[in-house]
TrEMBL record:
Translocase among keywords: no
Keyword Zinc: yes
Domain of life where this protein originates: Archaea
Positions of the Metallo-beta-lactamase domain: 14-174
Protein name: Glyoxylase, beta-lactamase superfamily II
Molecular function terms from GO: hydrolase activity; metal ion binding
Cofactor(s) needed by this chain: Zn(2+)
UniProt keyword annotations, A-Z: Hydrolase, Metal-binding, Zinc
């Protein structure tokens, strides 16, 4: 499955928005980069679906522009005016060529979900490979109102329980994509979260 980071050249703060080209060409998150719909158009003439990991501004600011440019369905957990399909824990959704299980993973955001395929994990902000705070196993911040480190820890544990053998690609909301032992990356992130290591101690 071809996965393209369509926000890779962004000059503003944005999430990684991923275009998965395949059986159901899907954009995972829309990002906050002006013109992202044009980048999507460089790689495909049609977009079947946009799937949101959560609704923080850096993940959804350009959603209206994407949906105006393409006749695509919109999948989300929680209320959103553009949503056409609800996501719930345990649902299955096609992302490119992979049938992914929806895993409810709050802590960083109350409406956060991750998408677990046979080979690929689209993790949003619940776990990332590197993000400027920690390398080789980090996690979304939990120090803002409405966030919870305890709930994020439970979400990381749930991800590990539901991760299939052979999954070796991590597409996170920030930082680099990763290919290799994804389970080990999540375990390192979980260990840091359990030790209550602050992500940004100087703030």
């Amino acid at each position: 499955m071809e996965v393209i980071t369509v926000t890779a050249d962004a000059a503003v703060f944005t999430c990684n928005a991923y275009l998965a080209v395949g059986e159901q060409t899907t954009l995972v998150d829309a990002g906050a980069m002006d013109g992202v719909e044009g980048v999507v158009r460089e790689h495909t003439d049609s977009l079947d679906a946009v799937v949101l990991t959560h609704q923080h501004g850096d993940h959804v600011s350009e959603l209206d522009a994407v949906l105006s440019a393409f006749d695509a369905d919109c999948y989300a957990y929680g209320d959103h005016p553009q949503k056409t399909h609800d996501l719930a824990d345990g649902d299955r959704v096609q992302v490119g060529d992979e049938r992914c299980e929806v895993v409810y993973t709050p802590g960083h955001a109350e409406d956060h979900v991750s998408l677990v395929g046979e080979r690929a994990l689209f993790s949003g902000d619940v776990v990332v490979y590197n993000d400027g705070a920690f390398d080789d196993g980090s996690f979304g911040r939990t120090d803002y109102p409405g966030q919870s480190r305890e709930r994020l820890i439970e979400s990381l544990e749930e991800l590990l329980d539901r991760l299939p053998e052979g999954l070796d690609r991590l597409y996170a909301g920030h930082g680099d994509t990763y290919e290799g032992d994804v389970r080990a990356v999540i375990e390192r992130a979980l260990g840091r979260a359990q030790r209550r290591e602050p992500k940004y101690p100087d703030e």
